[in-house]
Amino acid sequence: MIDCLSCPAWINPQIDFLLFLQNIRVHYPEAWDKFFLSVTIFGEFWLPTLICAIVYWCLDFKAGIYLFTLESFNIFLTHLFKMIACVYRPWVLSTRIQPSALAIPLAKGYSFPSGHSAMSSSVLGGCAYLLRKNKILCAFLVCLILLVGFSRLWLGVHTPQDVVCGLSIGLILIFAGNYIINWAQKDKNRYMYLLTAINILSILILVYLNCFNTYRTDYISGELLVDPQKLKYVTLVVYAFSLGIINGCFLCAKFCPFNPKDASVIRRIARGITGSIFLILMSQFIVKPIIINIIDIKIGVTLMFLVGLSVTLFYPLIFTRLNKIFIK
């Protein structure tokens, strides 16, 4: 029985399954929670972005565009679904659910779909698709994706429907993204057509979410469960980051494409290390503070857009220029 709010009866079996895992979890050392919490980083913001960036900067330009497209589309869809569905976390649906205390700080906002599951299945699934001829590595990535999804259940922060929907989003994007990128690569002008459509559609979605969408405002013990205004802010800034990523990719593909293999292995390694440090610093000192601490929306959106653009456009312009200097 759902204790806190009126919920559909079909949620009950999912709560029972989480209780089953919970009864197992409480008898295991906290080290297991820490292990599964470490697994979830493959579904968070910075590590999937770093994986996409390493491929984009150092290994294969077109494959990097494909992975960044999957990541950006994933962010668009998961936040759109979360804001429309307004499904609460399992411990709100039932007070019997006691999530791992270690996971709660990273489980804010609405629950459906699982963003970690969607992000890992999009980016790691995209890598598996690109490496599908390597059966062992492909199987490892698929197992890692499933482990990320299971970790969200083990930690008690998502229901099975959240995880299944998140994994499904990634699976759909893997094949849809491949079709879209293959279509765009046949003519560089198509990148601009596609980019225009993405920007317009994203703006329309944001207008809808901020002006027309209805949000749940349930209270328990006088406390608002989820603050819609804060979620609107978070959605705006993460959309800005995704638009920066996708704009940078497509503008680079149209006007200044590059081949990472034109640089020596040493230069590519240096490029990857330097870019990784840059990305991690931005994540910790710009992205994270912007998302956690609500600042002026115009400043937040501008900074996040520039961060995304820096990863896929500004930084490649710098290292390709340096590579030409070294060649001369």
Tertiary shape: globular
Q: Cα distance, first to last residue?
A: 72 Å
Structural classification:
mainly alpha
Please provide the count of β strands.
Answer: 2
**Main beta sheet: strand number and arrangement?**
2 strands, antiparallel
Query: What's the helix count?
Result: 12
Give a structural overview.
It contains twelve helices and two strands; from the N terminus they run αααααααααββααα. The chain is globular, with a radius of gyration of 20 Å. It has a two-stranded antiparallel ribbon. The model has no long low-confidence stretch (mean pLDDT 90). The chain is an all-alpha fold. Helix 6 runs antiparallel to helix 7. A hairpin with a 2-residue loop joins strand 1 and strand 2. The longest helix has 31 residues.
Give short descriptive properties of this protein.
globular, two-stranded antiparallel ribbon, 1% strand, 12 helices, 2 strands, 328 residues, mainly alpha
